[in-house]
Amino acid sequence: GSVFAHLVQAPEDPILGVTVAYNKDPSPIKLNLGVGAYRTEEGKPLVLNVVRKAEQQLINDKSRIKEYLPIAGLVEFNKLSAKLILGADSPAIRENRITTVECLSGTGSLRVGGEFLAKHYHQKTIYITQPTWGNHPKIFTLAGLTVKTYRYYDPSTRGLNFQGLMEDLGAAPPGAIVLLHACAHNPTGVDPTIQQWEQIRQLMRSKGLMPFFDSAYQGFASGSLDTDAKPIRMFVADGGECLVAQSYAKNMGLYGERVGALSIVCKSADVAGKVESQLKLVIRPMYSSPPIHGASIVAVILRDRNLFNEWTLELKAMADRIISMRKQLFEALRSRGTPGDWSHIIKQIGMFTFTGLNPAQVSFMTKEYHIYMTSDGRISMAGLSSKTVPHLADAIHAVVT
Ligand code: PLP
User: Is 226 one of the catalytic residues?
Assistant: First the structure.
């Protein structure tokens, strides 16, 4: 018999498992709103034009080689990524007190940052939002941190529970790490206002709480890279320290290239240098060094003014299509006279709508309408199109009446 015969079958990942179930469904009207990946009006994955151009440029360059990157990744990519998230005029960049390492997309950046903190930061507790992206608790637990939650979402308003958030962060032990979704909160689509961010910043700084930003959707929420980075820049402007995990999966459509960055903003260049040396000790035994291709694509686009501008237009078009899907779904429910207040569909931000549908309703919609989503009622607006909105609206209408 096999030495592994005692293993039990593990459950599918709660998010990726939705796609597995979808793929098995033979129905021609099936609709996958589970996974957070952009789709065109035709329901197809999108490779940005600007990415195709950058790849062509890389192919044409016969001097390019496939040597290992250094442990911290592509140097130019790291510099440009810091500039993209913090802004070209950031004091942290000017004063050279930031270290940035290329990591395996957003997930890898969170994991490396988590392990670094578990090794070198005095507080081992990280507070994450309730609810949050399903991978967060697992990433940080395996990184060696203790995971606790803070209140975030208010089901009764389908908006932010700001008071609960402030109470919970106010009661956190001094120095605790706080994971903050930089924009387009996953799964709720609910973000603090700029005024609320300022109050969160003041509270966190007064208690010495350590901000760890997860920026998986820069540009995807508002359509503007700068607007979506604003909360992070507020925390950097006050001179304090923070961590930022960046992903290029959504905003450049580089999902499978696994390209992202971890930045740690420090108080001095000297400390930043030491932090980088220790980050390399975390990375080397984990995967040795990151891949070269995705980071090269990003660097080509970010370094060239024309390509950069073209990218911002394509990014805005994706964000606008998602916003238009919100309006169309809201209108479709209104025209059906579907009971309930559905205004959260147009108020929420980014890729997802947290519909408020419960697991039983979700399972009814999957069974009767072949519509797939996570059991918490989260739907990916990027998976919708003008053609499929009526089908989704019919299903929601049927399940709530
Ligand atoms: N953080 C959040 C909140 C996300 O929603 C995602 C992706 O869905 C990620 C991080 C990381 O994604 P990736 O590792 O593909 O960059």
Answer: no
Dihedral over Cα of 385, 386, 392, 397: its sign: positive
- Give pLDDT tens digits for 219-262: 999 999 999 999 999 999 999 999 999 999 999 999 999 999 99
Distance of CA 136 to the CA centre of its chain: 11
**How far apart are alpha carbons 385 and 376 in whole angstroms?**
22
Q: One of 53, 168, 191, 214 is an active-site residue; which one?
A: 214
Residue spans of alpha helices (H) in 252-381: 269-287, 293-303, 305-336, 344-347, 359-369
Q: Find all residues with CB under 8 Å of 329, minimum gap 6, and list them.
A: 345, 353, 381, 384, 389, 392, 393
Question: Do the interacting molecules here have an ipTM over 0.95?
Answer: yes
* Pocket lining for ligand 1, CB < 6 angstroms: 36, 105-107, 133, 181, 186, 214, 216, 247, 249, 260
pLDDT digits (tens, 9 = 90+) for 345-365: 999 999 999 999 999 999 999
**What's the Cα-to-Cα distance from 23 to each of 15, 372, 395, rounded to whole Å?**
14, 10, 20
Q: Who contacts 274 (Cβ-Cβ below 8 Å, separation ≥6)?
A: none
Identity at 175, one-letter amino acid code: G
Report residue 29 as tokens. 């009207």
Q: What is the helix (H) or strand (E) element at residue 247, kind and residue range?
A: strand 242-247
pTM of the prediction?
A: 0.96
Residue 102: closest CA among 66, 140, 76 = 76
CB 319 within 8 A of CB 313: no
How far does residue 202's CA lie from ligand 1's centre (Å)? Answer: 27
Instruction: Find the helix or strand (DSSP H, E) in which 203 lies.
Output: helix 194-206
Bridge partners, residue 352, by sequence: 380
Is the CB of residue 151 less than 8 Å from the CB of residue 185? Answer: no
